Amino acid sequence: MKIQEADAKGLLLAQGLPVPPWVVARTAAEARAAAERILATGAERVVVKAQVLVGGRGKAGGVKLAGSATEAEGAARQILGMDIKGITVRKVLVGEAADIVTEIYLGAVLDRAARRILLMGSAEGGVEIEQVAAERPEAIVRIHAHPFLGLLDWQARQMAFGLGLAAHRAAAVAIAKGLVRTMLAYDADLVEINPLAVVRTRAADGTESLALQCLDAKITIDDSALPRHPDLESLRDLDEEDPTDAAARAEGISFIKLDGTIGCMVNGAGLAMTTMDLVKRAGGEPANFLDIGGGARADRVAAAMRLILSDPKVEAILVNIFGGITRGDEVAHGLIEARGQQTREVPMVVRIVGTNAEEAARLLTEARFETATSLDEAAAKAVAAAQRTTPSGSPSRSPR
C-alpha cells in the first residue's frame, strides 16, 4: 500500500524524525489559508506540492513556490485537477519553502536476497535514485542493518560520513536509525527521504544556522501486515487506487495485474506462480496473478472471473484448481455462473483435480467447457486459444 507524502511525513514525525510543518489542502481557498498561517510565522515563501502517488511531480508542474497567500492560491488552482502520469491531483501539500544548501537521498528497503533491511544513501539527492544507480552506482552507499539489533550506531555513522555529513553527524545518525525504526514499526517495504536536506534556518533574532530536515517522504506498507496496523488502513488513498485492486481486496482475493493476455485463476500462491511459469513456457504471457484462496465458494469464483475479464487485454482464461479445502464442484458452479454474466466471450480452459473433481468434470462437460487433465495440457490449450482470438477479445471461432 502506497501512502501520500503528507501521510508518510506523519509516520516519520511519529518516529522522531525532523519534518517541517505542513498543511494538506483540497481547494485553492484552503491553500490560501494555509499559506497565510505559514507566512505569518516569518516564512518568506511557501511550496505547494501535488499529492499523487507517482514521481516526477516537479517536472510535470506539480510543485510551485509562492511568495504570498494570493500566489499560493493561484498555484493551488493550477495544480488541483492537473493530470500527472494519468492521475488527477485532488489535494496539495502546503509548507514553508526550505532554503536548501545540500540535497541528499536516504532510503531503507527490504533486501529479500540478503534477508535484511538495506539502507541506501547518496549525496546526489533530489533526483531519482534509479537514475543515479544506473549512471553512477559508485555514488550510492549501501549498508545492511543487523537482522536482530537493527541499524547499529557505527553503521549509521558510516552512512553519515559516506554522505559527507560529518558536520551533522549526530542528526544524520538519528535520522538513519529512525528510518530503519520507521520501517520496522509499520512493516514497510520502503521508507525513502528524497531529499534529506541541509537547510538554512533563521531564528527570531535573525541568526542563521544549518540543520538536517526531511523535505519529502515516500513509504509503502506491506499489505499482508495491515491486520497488525488497522490504523494505517485509513491512509489508503482510494482516489488513486485501481478499481480492480479495490474490488479484489473487497472480495478477499489476491490479485496482481500483469501485461499478458492469459488470465489465470488459481487457488494457492505457489500453484499460481507455477501456473504462470507454465503459461510462459507454452509461449504465452500471463495477464495476472490471482489466488482465490482455500475454501473458495461459487460467489468468489464468479468475482474472480469478473476481475480477470475487467482487463480488455485478456484473450483466454486458464483455471487451475487443486481441490483440498476448495471443492471442485463449487468452483465449477462459480465458473458456470460467471460465464452467464460475461459481457464478452473469452475462451476458457479448466483443470480441476482433488476434492469433488469428478462432479466438477461432469458439471463442466454438461456446460460445454474446454477441460484439461494436466497443467501442461491446460497451459498449451489456453495459449492456443489466445492465439486464435482477435485483439478485440472476440474469438475468431467458438472455443467450445
Mean pLDDT score, rounded? 89
Q: How many runs of DSSP E, i.e. beta strands?
A: 19
Overall SS class = alpha+beta
The shape is elongated
Predict the CATH topology of the largest domain.
Answer: D-amino Acid Aminotransferase, Chain A, domain 1
> Are there runs of 5+ residues with pLDDT below 50, and where?
392-400
Structure overview:
- By secondary structure, the protein is of the alpha+beta class.
- The chain folds into three domains: 1-19 and 99-240, ATP-grasp fold, B domain (D-amino Acid Aminotransferase, Chain A, domain 1, 2-Layer Sandwich), CATH 3.30.470; 21-97, Dna Ligase, domain 1; 243-387, 3-Layer(aba) Sandwich (Rossmann fold).
- Helices cover 34% and strands 26% of the residues.
- The protein has twelve helices and 19 strands.
- Strands 1, 8, 9, 10, 11, 12 and 13 form a seven-stranded antiparallel sheet that branches. The chain has a four-stranded antiparallel sheet with strand order 2-7-3-4, with helices on one face. A four-stranded parallel sheet has the order 15-17-18-19, sandwiched between helices.
- Helix 5 (153-162) packs across helix 6, helix 7 runs antiparallel to helix 9 and helix 10 (328-341) packs parallel to helix 11.
- Residues 392-400 have low confidence and may be disordered.
